[in-house]
Design a protein that fits this description.
single chain, about 375 residues, alpha/beta, 14 strands, globular, binds 4'-deoxy-4'-aminopyridoxal-5'-phosphate
């Protein structure tokens, strides 16, 4: 949310996505909207057939490679259809009808991915976090011998459950849905067969999926796979099998440049840890006024779902937060409650405003006799 542009009093957007974008990136987009790169036309008018597009895309890829230290064994693909389409694309490209495919389930999206994959290959759930309040430990993963791949979701956006380790799969290709924590911290890309992420959280507007795929995984696509879901064809055609989403690709380039300018992903991780700690601290110190289900080691630094003790007070919280310019704090419709998403572009100042609001809301909504009891206990 652009505090400088949209309103005189700052507004902060805590939506899970599409969500907050860097204010200065949005301003650059605005300045280039009518005349991109001094070419005399808008970036929205840029054709993927123009050489200017090819060089722009090349630059985006090179910068992504630099930011994530992507080794030359891996290709960077730009796809459409959202991360949800990847749930079907993956088994069609990387397994046969007879292969077992392993899925680690620690929340809504990984469960959904497993359900889709089961239409194409027998799925073995190798690790299951029953209540989505934690991720299974490595010792709990019962990997299938000879599985075609192991799939997991490194950060469950709805449940707020984030892996604190990279699963060891002993040579079986590891595939990760990183939609909601992509670019939030460094990644050791060579450990993965494929990483994929929708763009509309840490990258830019909706409409793009970035996939980083180890090239020796390609070439095994099933014959019935729609061409637009055939990753080998997409790789061979430089992500331009059809008209690509030019604008989100351009936006992605600006975001990646911004992250490089900010010092890269180590730096982002430090800032993200700090922002998440600010919110978890206010929750932990609230004597149960606010609560989080996820266990400490798996508490997400990107998406923090939290509850208040009843629905009435929760609705009041959301309404007053909105009035205070703190937007998008509603939980996912499937689970309700509240959720604060702290993507890269959320400034520390926005999180400061949120935690101040939460602390004040608690004071204003704690009955006097409880306050007195608490004061007595701490005296
Ligand atoms: N995976 C994760 C972790 C998500 O958060 C989401 C929702 N944005 C999806 C998959 C589905 O993404 P899309 O809506 O782009 O299909």
């Amino acid at each position: 949310m652009v505090e400088q542009i949209t309103t005189s009093s700052p507004v902060y957007n805590f939506s899970a996505g599409p969500g907050v974008l860097f204010a200065d990136v949005l301003q650059k987009v605005q300045s280039e909207m009518l005349n991109w790169n001094n070419n005399g036309y808008s970036v929205l008018e840029l054709s993927h057939r123009m050489p200017e597009f090819s060089s722009m895309l090349m630059g985006v890829k090179q910068n992504l490679r630099k930011l994530l230290s992507i080794p030359c064994t891996h290709d960077v693909l730009f796809l459409q259809g959202g991360a949800t389409q990847m749930f079907s694309t993956i088994p069609m490209n990387f397994s046969t009808q007879r292969d077992t495919v392993d899925y680690i389930v620690n929340g809504y999206w990984s469960r959904y991915a497993a359900k889709e994959a089961n239409k194409y290959s027998p799925v073995n759930i190798v690790g299951y976090a029953n209540d989505s309040a934690s991720c299974p430990d490595q010792s709990e993963l019962r990997l299938s011998p000879g599985a075609a791949y192991v799939h997991y979701c490194s950060n469950e956006t709805i449940d707020g459950c984030e892996f604190d380790y990279v699963p060891e799969t002993h040579g079986v290709p590891l595939i990760c849905d990183m939609s909601s924590n992509f670019l939030s911290r460094p990644i050791d890309v060579k450990r993965y067969g494929m990483i994929y992420a929708g763009s509309h959280k840490n990258v830019g507007p909706a409409g793009l999926v970035i996939a980083i795929v180890r090239m020796d995984m390609l070439g095994k696509c099933r014959s019935f796979t729609p061409t637009m879901m055939n990753l080998t064809e997409i790789s061979l055609n430089m992500s331009m099998l059809n008209t690509p989403p030019v604008f989100p690709m351009y936006f992605c380039g600006l975001t990646v440049q911004k992250l490089l300018d900010m010092g890269g992903l180590r730096e982002m991780e430090k800032i993200n840890m700090l922002k998440a700690k600010m919110v978890y601290d206010v929750i932990n110190q609230s004597n149960g006024f606010y609560s989080v289900r996820v266990l400490g080691k798996n508490r997400s630094i990107m998406n923090i779902p939290f509850g208040l003790h009843n629905e009435e007070i929760q609705n009041k919280f959301l309404m007053e937060a909105k009035k205070a310019g703190l937007l998008g704090l509603e939980g996912h419709p499937k689970v309700g409650k509240c959720r604060a998403s702290l993507y890269n572009a959320m400034p520390v100042e926005g999180v400061k405003r949120l935690v101040e609001f939460m602390a004040q809301f608690q004071i204003d909504n704690t009955p006097l006799k409880l306050c007195l009891a608490e004061a007595r206990d701490t005296a």
